């Protein structure tokens, strides 16, 4: 029976980055002709595990068996030779090349010195017909829709003789139609004898195509289940685990006036994908509205359109009843908005400037900080010292360059700056990503304090625990759409997990 | 070009110093291999620089354009831009001041001042053109600079030949005496060394650079744009406006170099086959000086002294003056690729830690 | 008509040096390394071409001398290419600054060597055996076309051959595909199991030598010796030709011809009375303005290799 044959087996694989275990003793068995889903939240260690299999780095412990033979996979080239192919989340395609050129790159068929483009094109055509991957071998990749580009990536792996295909979050960038098509393609592939590892956190996809599912959480192996013996509820619960949703001490919920109001916001990408799809929401003073969702479902675009960092196609955004249309970013900040961006290093900080210089990043131009020409250096320094104290920023002095500081202290610099501006609306994205428990508690308490003072807070996070303990209401965003609202006191991890994975309840 | 600005910001101060020393040693080794005496060569270099009142005056005259060019490039670098178009800005500044200096009748000093101002503004606008191409059409400033350097060169030829020609020679007519910005009495004192207003204006520019970046809100926002334009955008800073403003000032400083050469040194403009190359020296000087006030000043002086003194090497020790050009290019090479310096000095990692 | 034929012929002579210089620049940029060092490589080529031919003459090699000059230029410019490779690939220096350094270094080193080798002279001794025009039998007698196209130096035909073969390699062979892929998306080439570093290394090495042929051409066909102004900005014009030619060999050729035409026409301008009113500088200016306009029109959709100027680190996936 071929069904029981193991094409890939991982035993006790561990991978450490510094002191942090990205993977710890993970076991995985992939059978021939199966679709095996690898399920976990953001940062659970799925991609790290598969990068190990693809030879991108070496495990710190454990064994890898390919076709039941123990093997050390040296590099991607070696992995390819073993018949392992990876369909990367970020495509590795040369946009300026044709489909065929991309596929044959590095394994070009030749006549004499030249590439045998005729036979290459035919081979690509045959492959694409065999597996139902409809692409025109002669079109340029840059002219193709994202879904078609993904087919080229799959063909690239097949052309190299891959029998084990790893799909890394393949549906993240696709439209619903394209997703359906991809799932069909996967079924065709296994019908032709290929085996597939599907990395995902979307439950409906797993339920519709996978044979088995392995769940990992915080780098650790949780369980492998047969899809026919499970349901979405169980999977969701396994994925998020038992979170202790402790509500922090806070005043009773007592919402005041509407501060932020968003009506029917739409944003379409250049390739025609809907990034924001009819988003409407409101945030009142004294309320924390949590936005739950898996990364890449439109959160950053939503937030950036509120502060006018990007322009949306249609829809209306009102802050304190006033439309933000035509306003500059600075205007919006001046109207009482503070914004803690998701990416500390790219947006939130100028890493090569010091603490006090980063603290004035938004307001340096105001009379408060300069006399029209000169910055008030003394005052800026003194304020820096004060804020370091008030926000528990640990560094040598206010003149310490931010680059060398820990993530927690860097985040506190941003928080100090944004909270000190006395906002009426605070937009805060992923405020505790990568921070230690002390910093997390501090930041959570700050958020609650502001809420109790009557500030309207829009909290975007991928951490369920954080959302449940801080929010007064939670909206769930999926594929650019607000697909539901829950009361944090009246929900559980399973419900949220299901909704974040695109399953409305 | 953000990477360049960042690279400079974090760089160890030892690197430029070591780079200079290693390059000078390399130069000495080359001279030895070629059969020259490096000690005599370096001695005659210094003699040339400090040998006479005239030489001291002339070495200052030679240093001024290098300093200004270094600061023009450093200023742009601070905003994350690589201005290799200083040559073009020099040319435009020179020809603009030439036209005002020859065609207009104004009383002395006022005439000089007017010609100077026009030249500076013209240079600035030439810089703005680069900024415009970058912000409006996303054309990389390095590429547009190269094109605009040549456009400036041939434009200046056209203007000289068409408006202020000196018949029978490859240069323009002389400017009017009233437009001269030479310091005649000081020049006499220095046996005819061609000193000019730049003697006072250049230190002002250097101080202005220091003041701008260390004191003012405008310098602050310029640096923010150069270090992280995403953060600048997030903070509500209009990045394109800063780029345009910076290129105006950078171009204006370039224009000033051309003004000094035309109104203060030569009193005419030559129709030369290529631009001066001072702009490229400026790239080297700013890189060596790490875009800091003191660093750029010191490296400008260093390069100026080496260049001017190289004539003395030729004369005193028979060493071709190009050896200095080689040494200068090696200095930049080492500074641009600091890993190389570490390779050459295996102990450096160790030393570096102690210094930090 | 004869005048026009001469202009075309003249354009080709100017254009050949530019085209060779530009082909070098194009090659390294195709592999993702910005090449502002074309000027320096051309200077080096002119110098080594001159002394190679000169020493060949002193060894009584006669008509072989210019060929030896050409080979010397090709081989010894590898010294500068190697420096450039080290700076940009191994030590990850900024490409633009490395290019400026190569230009400075090569100019100064060659002038230094000229003075050293020839007792302080400012230029190399004049070569008597330069390349001579080849009149292609029969074709050169065709009216107009004969003068315009079939009475050229052997280097012209060499350049043409390099363009044809270069275009073939770049667009038809596996190695060409890999080089182009490296300039566009090294990550894609790397995951296909190809050594990105090696591709960049050899592309830049060959790039310098190709540009050197351009510099040598100027000495061995028109100037006859090397001095400080033999190469005065041609390297930068060559870069313009690369941009105008959209990083394709035939495109580069047309770009070089346009610049060559602009140079040739000002030599012949007095013959066209109707052009008298136009200052000759306009013809100098035009190519740069055209290049800028071309850039404006293509804008962000420029055909420059997408990964141009970046340092590829294979450990970051």
Automatic annotation (TrEMBL), chain A:
Bilayer-crossing regions: none
Membrane disposition: Peripheral membrane protein
Principal location listed in the UniProt entry: membrane
CDD domains xrefs: ABC_Carb_Monos_I, ABC_Carb_Monos_II
A UniProt-annotated Pfam family: ABC_tran
Protein's cellular compartments: Cell membrane
Keywords: ATP-binding, Cell membrane, Membrane, Nucleotide-binding, Repeat, Translocase, Transport
MF (Gene Ontology): ATP binding; ATP hydrolysis activity
InterPro entries for the chain: AAA+_ATPase, ABC_carbohydrate_import_ATPase, ABC_transporter-like_ATP-bd, ABC_transporter-like_CS, P-loop_NTPase
Boundaries of every ABC transporter domain copy: 8-243, 260-504
GO cellular component annotations of the record: plasma membrane
Protein name per the record: ABC transporter ATP-binding protein
TrEMBL record, chain B:
CDD domains cross-referenced by the UniProt entry: TM_PBP1_transp_TpRbsC_like
Keyword Transmembrane: yes
A GO molecular-function annotation: transmembrane transporter activity
Subcellular location: Cell membrane
InterPro entries according to UniProt: ABC_transp_permease
Alphabetical keyword list: Cell membrane, Membrane, Transmembrane, Transmembrane helix
Keyword Manganese: no
Membrane topology: Multi-pass membrane protein
One Gene Ontology cellular component: plasma membrane
Regions that span the bilayer: 12-39, 59-77, 84-104, 110-133, 145-164, 195-213, 248-271, 283-306, 318-341
PANTHER family: ABC TRANSPORTER, PERMEASE PROTEIN, GUANOSINE ABC TRANSPORTER PERMEASE PROTEIN NUPP
Protein name: ABC transporter permease
Protein's organism: Halolactibacillus alkaliphilus
TrEMBL record, chain C:
Subcellular location: Cell membrane
Pfam family, one: BPD_transp_2
Keyword Transmembrane: yes
An MF annotation (GO) of this entry: transmembrane transporter activity
CC per GO annotation: plasma membrane
Keyword Ribosomal protein: no
Membrane topology designation: Multi-pass membrane protein
Alphabetized CDD domains for the sequence: TM_PBP1_transp_TpRbsC_like
Keywords of this entry: Cell membrane, Membrane, Transmembrane, Transmembrane helix
Residues annotated as transmembrane: 6-26, 33-55, 67-89, 96-118, 157-179, 199-219, 282-299
Protein name stated in the entry: ABC transporter permease
Organism of this sequence: Halolactibacillus alkaliphilus
């Amino acid at each position: 029976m071929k069904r029981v044959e193991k094409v890939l087996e991982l035993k006790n694989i561990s991978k450490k980055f510094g002191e942090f275990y990205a993977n710890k003793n993970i076991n995985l068995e992939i059978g021939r002709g199966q679709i095996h889903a690898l399920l976990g939240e953001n940062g659970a260690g799925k991609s790290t595990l598969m990068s190990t299999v693809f030879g991108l780095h070496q495990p710190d412990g454990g064994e890898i068996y390919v076709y039941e033979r123990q093997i050390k996979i040296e590099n991607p080239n070696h992995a390819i030779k073993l018949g392992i192919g990876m369909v990367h989340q970020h495509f590795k395609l040369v946009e300026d090349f044709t489909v065929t050129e991309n596929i044959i790159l590095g394994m070009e068929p030749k006549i004499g010195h030249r590439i045998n483009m005729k036979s290459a094109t035919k081979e690509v055509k045959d492959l694409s017909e065999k597996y139902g991957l409809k692409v025109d071998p002669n079109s340029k990749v840059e002219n193709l829709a994202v879904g078609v580009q993904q087919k080229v990536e799959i063909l690239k792996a097949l052309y190299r003789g891959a029998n084990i295909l790893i799909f890394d979050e393949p549906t993240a960038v696709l439209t619903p139609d394209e997703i359906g098509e991809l799932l069909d393609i996967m079924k065709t592939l296994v019908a032709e004898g290929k085996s597939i590892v599907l990395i995902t956190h979307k439950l409906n996809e797993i339920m519709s195509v996978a044979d088995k599912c392995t769940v990992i959480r915080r780098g650790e192996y949780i369980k492998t289940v047969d899809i026919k013996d499970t349901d979405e509820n169980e999977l969701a619960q396994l994925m998020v685990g038992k979170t202790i949703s402790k509500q922090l001490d806070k005043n009773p919920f007592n919402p005041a006036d509407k501060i932020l109001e968003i009506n029917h916001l739409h944003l379409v990408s250049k390739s025609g994908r809907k990034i924001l799809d009819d988003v409407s929401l409101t945030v009142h003073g004294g309320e924390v509205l949590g936005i739950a969702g898996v990364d890449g479902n439109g959160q950053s675009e939503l937030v950036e359109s509120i502060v006018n960092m990007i322009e949306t196609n249609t829809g209306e955004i009102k802050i304190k009843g006033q439309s933000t249309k035509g306003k500059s970013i600075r205007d919006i900040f001046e109207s009482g908005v503070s914004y803690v961006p998701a990416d500390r290093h790219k947006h939130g900080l100028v890493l090569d400037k010091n603490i006090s210089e980063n603290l004035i990043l938004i307001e340096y131009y105001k009379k408060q900080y300069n006399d029209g020409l000169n910055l008030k250096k003394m005052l800026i320094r003194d304020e820096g010292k004060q804020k370091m104290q008030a926000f528990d920023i640990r560094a040598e002095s206010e003149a310490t360059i931010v680059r060398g500081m820990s993530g927690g202290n860097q985040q506190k610099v941003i928080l100090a700056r944004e909270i000190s501006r006395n906002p009426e609306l605070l937009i805060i994205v992923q405020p505790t990503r990568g921070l230690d428990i002390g910093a997390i508690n501090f930041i959570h308490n700050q958020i609650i304090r502001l809420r109790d003072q009557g500030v309207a807070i829009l909290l975007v996070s991928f951490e369920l625990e954080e959302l449940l303990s801080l929010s007064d209401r939670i909206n769930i965003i999926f594929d650019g759409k607000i697909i539901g609202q829950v009361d944090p006191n009246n929900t559980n991890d399973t419900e949220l997990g299901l909704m974040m994975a695109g399953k409305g309840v | 070009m953000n990477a360049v600005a960042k690279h400079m910001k974090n760089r160890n101060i030892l690197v430029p110093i070591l780079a200079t020393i290693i390059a000078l040693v390399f130069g000495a080794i080359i001279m030895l291999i070629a059969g020259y005496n490096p000690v005599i060569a370096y001695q005659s270099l210094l003699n040339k620089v400090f040998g006479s009142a005239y030489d001291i005056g002339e070495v200052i005259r030679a240093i001024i354009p290098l300093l200004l060019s270094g600061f023009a490039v450093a200023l742009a670098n601070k905003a994350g831009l690589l201005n290799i178009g200083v040559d073009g800005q020099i040319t435009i500044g020179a020809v603009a001041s030439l036209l005002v200096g020859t065609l207009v009748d104004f009383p002395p000093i006022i005439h000089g001042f007017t010609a100077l101002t026009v030249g500076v503004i013209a240079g600035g606008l030439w810089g703005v053109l680069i900024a415009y191409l970058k912000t409006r059409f996303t054309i990389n400033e390095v590429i547009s600079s190269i094109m605009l350097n040549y456009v400036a060169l041939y434009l200046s030829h056209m203007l000289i030949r068409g408006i202020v020609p000196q018949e029978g020679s490859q240069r323009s007519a002389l400017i009017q005496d009233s437009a001269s910005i030479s310091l005649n009495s000081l020049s006499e004192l220095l046996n005819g060394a061609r000193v000019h207003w730049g003697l006072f204006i250049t230190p002002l520019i250097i101080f202005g650079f220091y003041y701008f970046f260390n004191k003012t809100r405008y310098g602050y926002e310029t640096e923010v744009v150069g270090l992280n334009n995403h953060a600048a955008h997030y903070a509500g800073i209009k990045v394109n406006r800063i780029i345009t403003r910076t290129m105006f000032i950078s171009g204006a400083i370039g224009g000033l170099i051309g003004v000094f050469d035309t109104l203060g040194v030569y009193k005419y403009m030559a129709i030369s086959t290529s631009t001066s190359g001072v702009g490229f020296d400026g790239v080297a000087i700013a890189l060596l000086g790490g875009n800091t006030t003191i660093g750029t000043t010191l490296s400008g002086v260093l390069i100026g002294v080496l260049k001017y003194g190289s004539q003395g090497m030729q004369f005193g020790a028979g060493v071709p003056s190009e050896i200095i050009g080689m040494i200068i290019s090696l200095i930049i090479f080492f500074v641009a690729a600091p890993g190389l310096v570490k390779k050459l000095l295996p102990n450096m990692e160790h030393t570096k830690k102690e210094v930090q | 008509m004869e005048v026009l034929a001469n202009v075309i012929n003249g354009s080709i002579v100017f254009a050949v040096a530019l085209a060779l210089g530009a082909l070098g620049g194009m090659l390294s940029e195709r592999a993702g390394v910005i090449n502002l060092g074309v000027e320096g490589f051309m200077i080096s080529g002119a110098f080594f071409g001159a002394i190679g031919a000169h020493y060949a003459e002193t060894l009584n090699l006669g008509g072989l001398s210019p060929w030896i000059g050409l080979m010397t230029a090709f081989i010894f410019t590898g010294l500068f290419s190697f420096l450039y490779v080290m700076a940009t690939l191994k030590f990850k220096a900024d490409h633009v600054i490395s290019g400026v350094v190569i230009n400075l270094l090569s100019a100064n080193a060659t002038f230094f060597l000229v003075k050293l080798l020839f007792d302080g002279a400012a230029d190399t001794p004049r070569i008597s055996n330069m390349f001579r025009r080849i009149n292609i039998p029969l074709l050169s007698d065709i009216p107009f076309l004969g003068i315009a196209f079939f009475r050229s130096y052997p280097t012209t035909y060499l350049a043409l051959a390099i363009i044809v073969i270069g275009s073939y390699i770049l667009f038809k062979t596996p190695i060409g595909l890999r080089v182009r892929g490296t300039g566009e998306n090294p990550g894609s080439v790397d995951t296909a199991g190809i050594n990105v570093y090696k591709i960049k290394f050899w592309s830049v090495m060959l790039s310098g030598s190709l540009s050197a042929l351009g510099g040598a051409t100027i000495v061995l066909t028109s100037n006859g010796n090397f001095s400080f102004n033999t190469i005065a900005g041609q390297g930068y014009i060559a870069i313009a030709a690369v941009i105008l030619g959209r990083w394709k060999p035939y495109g580069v050729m047309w770009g070089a011809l346009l610049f060559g035409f602009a140079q040739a026409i000002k030599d012949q301008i007095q013959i066209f009375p109707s052009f008298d009113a136009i200052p000759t500088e306009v013809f100098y200016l035009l190519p740069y303005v055209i290049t800028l306009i071309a850039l404006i029109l293509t804008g962000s959709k420029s055909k420059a290799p997408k990964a141009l100027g970046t340092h590829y680190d294979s450990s970051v996936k």
